[in-house]
Design goal:
heterodimer, A: about 260 residues, alpha/beta, Cytochrome-c3 Hydrogenase, Chain A, domain 2, 2 domains, three-stranded parallel sheet, about 30% helix, globular, B: about 600 residues, alpha+beta, three-stranded antiparallel sheet, about 40% helix
Chain lengths: ~260, ~600
């Protein structure tokens, strides 16, 4: 830090307790003191994960240590919020590579998240989206819909309100992501997701079934009418599919047999 | 965490007694925030204090929430032993609500847990612990073709040619010459406590680099079944993924074969790299380090890896039990719902109990009220005559207990399990040391490796059992009978017990009106790193350091060698420090 003032990046993981600085001490100094010293001559700060960018689990209600994210305890330096609990490893590497390759900080959105990785919602890039649009949902874990990989909206999926690259880059060299492995998205890259209602309670009123748009693309009235029309279609499709599923004759494979338990 | 060394060493000399007090903070190459302080007299440690310097209050945060969400919160206690708290949590809630999970869910949970064990232990040995035994700079003096001969004599691992070791050596040389030592900065290179010949150092450094690459593969087991790593997803009542071998969008043959390959490769790495390196290194250190760092004489294991139901501990691959006073002829029973079997004290911890400071509480009555009474930071020292840590002190029937791989291996051995007997006797014979050598830093280190070897075998057994179940037509992964809160009793309590990689882990829940009324975690490192109890008994870390020789007070390699043998995970919490010194001298070795 002494050798390259103004030239170095400070990379932070973890949030900063402010209720009593002694809630986190290293080498006898508080986390707040260490961070304040480190960023003094920094070029910019990268806040890794929701702890550093949004407070995360320790800041969940009632936040016993008054834990705060980096941008709420320092000022005067650009802070890049790389969100997620944790962020996808390839995203973290991607941010560093972007800075080194293009010699600039990636373009940030209104919450200072790199657009390169946080410009799209999970809902927009999820491979199960066609199921949502067609009204094909899992009703309970490991039911027939789950065994076919239907949409997890009714199980509480927060994909419609979560910005991240899980549907694109996926996790651990693209092996899978929560929805693909059968669990609804819990929204782990959004601020305050721990307090946004129980994980298994589904989001109210997600505009739906194919009309997911901003006001400047389609007029509100037209949007509603179209949505209603598509909603009706989707409901009819859902009923038809449901009938098919329930009445479907066994294909001779024992794994299709519900009754075994 | 991968930084080799960032340490602040404070030395005080008490002119009257010629004792030296040394503070090491932060301890690096562990998880979390730990401070250790020792008193050195005549070249040996005569007293030690261990302290956790961070707290978050997760137990408080859980109050009032849906019990089905708890696994996600507690998973975030730690990203190193990721998944283990989540597993314990779902077991706790299932125990409270009386839910039993389908056999495949149990197998998949076992697969995720064994994947964690194997990855975690290998990473610990190479990335966290090895540099206490291996001198990286000495590796630069090695003769690569000699190294090749040695490597090929101890293992059939293919990466062992002279050319390979020359490449590794050159890579490290370039690194060192660049001046930016990175992860190898600030090591105690050249310390007299290093005993390995340069060629063995070179082999170990090569494998360190290989292990870094290897470890990110096995965690993909979590990704397949749990969607991501770190922090895969769990479910009260089963596991979230669905098995369907005739469906494109579910776990089918491709996913299952991928998992099988990951475990096969892991077993090969453990058998051909980790175990041979461990035994080779141990052979150079056994004469002294087979008798240093033993510490406590009591060992606790909750047992784990069910084979016919979590409620049948007799069927666990790792048996449950307690050994007292190193008496391996007797294994005592563990029943955590009995009050005296687990009590937590805060007489030396920064919390307030409504019953006062000397009280012990069973976790079902547990309280977490933060009350910091230490010095305002920045501080040079804490006052050990008062409360000095964020870690609570748990006791089993009043006894301090060690938990972790050594405890598990001893309980397994003492329980007469043939697979335990086989690997332990193989190791003792190869090294030509008696059973007593297990009770040491080196013994603890060896136990971790031997346990990993056993785990790779069990993982493949679980895997093949899963395939058999599917073949026989059972693909259930979830029991939904008590999913809805309306089906729960008004009030109930539960305990979840797991053997996490670092030791015995337990969660305690009280559910009232469908919400969490109380939730307490008693974590392995809580047992090991805690401050003294009201009887003045030290816990495992502190006790293990007594009697350890220290060659150079400014380079306390011997201290971290023993502390690292426990594989501390402090996000679960810790700290050590000194009483009043007449003179305090700050040494910064950043």
């Amino acid at each position: 830090m002494k050798k390259y003032p103004g030239e170095y990046l400070v990379m932070v993981e973890g949030s900063i307790p402010t209720g009593n600085e002694a809630y986190c001490c290293i080498g006898g100094k508080s986390a707040l003191q260490i961070l304040t010293d480190a960023v003094k001559n920094a070029k910019a700060v990268v806040a890794w994960g929701n702890c550093a960018s949004a407070g995360c689990v320790q800041a969940a209600s009632p936040n016993p240590t008054d834990a705060k994210p980096v941008h709420k305890v320092i000022s005067g330096k650009p802070v890049i919020n790389v969100q997620g609990c944790p962020p996808i490893a390839a995203v973290m590497a991607g941010v560093v590579v972007h800075i080194l390759t293009f010699d600039r900080i990636p373009q940030l959105d209104g919450m200072n998240r790199p657009k390169a990785f946080y410009s799209r919602r999970v809902h927009d890039t999820c491979y199960r989206r066609p199921n949502f649009d067609a009204g094909l949902f899992v009703d309970s874990f490991d039911d027939e819909g789950a065994k076919r990989g239907y949409c997890l909206y009714k199980m509480g999926c927060k994909g419609p309100v979560t910005y991240n690259s899980c549907g694109i880059i996926k996790w651990n060299d693209g092996v899978s992501y929560p929805i693909q492995s059968g669990h609804p998205c819990i929204g782990c890259s959004e601020d305050g997701f721990w307090d946004n209602g129980p994980f298994y309670q589904h989001l109210p009123g997600v505009a739906g079934f194919g009309i997911e748009t901003t006001a400047d693309k389609i007029g509100l009235g037209l949007g509603i009418a179209t949505a209603a029309g598509i909603a009706t279609h989707a409901i009819v499709t859902n009923i038809r599919k449901h009938k098919e599923i329930v009445n479907e004759p066994a294909e001779g494979s024992v794994s299709d047999n519900h009754e075994k338990s | 965490m991968n930084r080799l060394r960032v340490q602040l060493v404070i030395t005080t000399k008490n002119l009257k007694t010629m004792a030296q007090r040394i503070v090491i903070d932060p301890i690096t190459r562990i998880e979390g925030h730990l401070r250790v302080e020792i008193e050195v007299n005549g070249g040996k440690i005569t007293d030690a204090y261990s302290a956790g310097t961070m707290v978050r209050g997760i137990e408080t945060i859980l109050k009032g929430r849906d019990p089905r969400d708890a696994w996600a919160f507690v998973g975030r206690v730690c990203g190193v032993c990721t998944s283990t708290h989540s597993l314990t949590s779902v077991r706790t809630v299932e125990n409270a609500l009386g839910i039993s999970i389908p056999p495949n869910a149990e197998l998949i949970r076992n697969l995720m847990a064994t994947a964690l064990y194997i990855q975690d232990h290998v990473v610990h040995f190479y990335v966290l612990h090895a540099l206490d035994w291996v001198d990286v700079v000495s590796a630069l003096k090695a003769n690569p073709s000699e190294a090749s001969k040695i490597a090929q004599s101890i293992s059939s691992w293919p990466k062992s040619s002279t050319g390979y070791f020359t490449d590794v050596q050159n890579r490290v040389k370039k690194f060192v010459e660049s001046g930016q030592l990175g992860i190898f900065a600030n090591g105690y290179w050249g310390h007299p406590a290093y005993k390995l010949p340069p060629e063995v150092n070179l082999i170990a450094v090569a494998h360190y680099l290989e292990a870094l690459d290897w470890q990110k593969e096995l965690v993909k087991v979590h990704t397949v079944f749990g969607g991501k790593n770190p922090h895969p997803n769990f479910l009260v009542g089963g596991i979230p993924c669905s098995l369907n071998i005739d469906e494109a969008n579910a776990i089918n043959a491709e996913r299952l074969a991928f998992v099988g390959t990951l475990f096969e490769n892991a077993k090969t790495f453990v058998d051909q790299v980790y175990i041979p390196d461990l035994l080779a290194i141990a052979s150079f250190y056994k004469s002294d380090w087979g008798a240093i760092g033993g510490g406590l004489k009591n060992y606790l294991s909750f047992g784990d890896f069910p084979t016919n139901g979590y409620s049948n501990p007799a069927g666990f691959k790792m048996p449950r039990g307690v050994i007292l006073d190193r008496d391996i002829s007797k294994v005592l029973e563990v029943k955590l719902d009995e009050p005296e079997q687990i009590q937590e004290y805060v007489n030396n911890s920064w919390y307030e109990y409504s019953k006062g400071d000397q009280a012990g509480l069973h976790p079902w009555e547990g309280e977490t009220k933060l009350n910091y009474t230490g010095p305002t930071p920045p501080y040079d020292y804490l006052d050990v005559s008062k409360k000095y840590s964020w870690v609570k002190t748990p006791r089993w029937k009043g006894h301090p207990m060690e938990v972790g791989p050594l405890s598990r291996m001893l309980v397994g051995y003492a329980s007469g399990r043939p697979d335990y007997k086989e690997v332990i006797e193989y190791a003792l014979k190869t090294l030509d040391v008696p059973v007593a050598a297990l009770f040491s830093t080196l013994g603890r280190t060896a136990a971790r490796g031997l346990e990993t070897k056993l785990t790779t075998v069990w993982a493949l057994e679980f895997y093949h059992q899963l395939l058999d179940n599917i073949k026989n037509g059972d693909t259930r992964t979830m029991n939904n009978e008590k999913w809805l809160p309306e089906s729960w009793p008004k009030e109930c309590k539960g305990i979840g017990m797991t053997e996490a990689p670092r030791g015995a882990l337990s969660h305690f829940i009280v559910i009232e009106d469908q919400k969490i009324k109380n939730y307490q975690l008693v974590v392995p490192t809580t047992w090991n790193a805690s401050p003294r109890d009201p009887q003045g008994q030290r816990s495992a870390f502190e006790e293990s350091l007594i009697g350890t020789p220290v060659a150079d007070a400014k380079l306390p390699l011997e201290v971290i060698r023993t502390i690292h043998s426990f594989d501390p995970c402090l996000a679960c919490a810790v700290h050590v420090y000194d009483e009043n010194g007449t003179h305090i001298h700050n040494l910064k070795t950043y």
